[in-house]
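Internal tracking record. Fields below are filled automatically when a chain is submitted to the structure queue. Please do not edit lines marked as system-generated. If the sequence contains nonstandard residues, flag them in the REMARKS field before resubmitting.
Queue: standard
Priority: normal
Entity type: single polypeptide chain
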Amino acid sequence: MDLTIPEYAYMFGFLQADGHLAQGPGRKGRLTVELSARDIDLLRAFQKLTPYYSSITERTRSTNFTKSHTTATWTLCSLEARTALNDLGLPYGRKSRTIGPPKTRFSRRDYVRGLIDADGSVGFTSKGCPFVCLTTASSAIASCLRDYAKDAGGADRTLRRNARDGIYNILYTKEVAQLLVADLYYPDCLALARKHSAAEAVADWVRPEHMRVAPPRRSWTEHEDRVLLELNSPMAAAKVLGRTTTSCNLRLWRLRTGQAPAPSK
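SYSTEM-GENERATED OUTPUT FOLLOWS
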């Protein structure tokens, strides 16, 4: 499984986010991926990419949302295949917080697209703005997306877990989202068909004339943090640093409450 090959990098990212590697007694165990039956073509692509016997089965059951929901499950039992995946960074059992980018060389945009297809969303907000987002419990995965988005779309993000369930919800909108989907969902790439279609719609979005363009965010430096703490006055710091009083007041609060790292001495 050479992760420099786009299809395998995508597949591995998807498996890390939405696959389950179970270990049984002795040498037994299996990898499973269960998706809605409408996405069965992706499982068939995974089956074709895998040089070991595997199966795809379908089942229909009732859920909290519908009385009849059909899913497709891809199952791979080969010990050699499971060992290869485990060595690359797909853990056995619960994995939401422990997964991270492969330690070997890999195709980054294809890997990230696999994560987005499995645990993210591409589309439009209720107000008609395009977006790309990823939900993850892993700090390493969150950092991987942040670094990729900074390189591909020029957008920086401060990563924080939400207070309710400790999950990262990383969101990119408007032109940044367009730049990301243009790089992620290139022609003929392996992807969920419905998300590839959503990416094409996002790429076609045109900003309405009445929608203002927000100025680029200016990151705080350690020097500015030290000045702010020494002055201990948002109004005075705003004049010295060339920032708004509101910005200085919010930054000072974050420094005092530990939500922003204290500058080194």
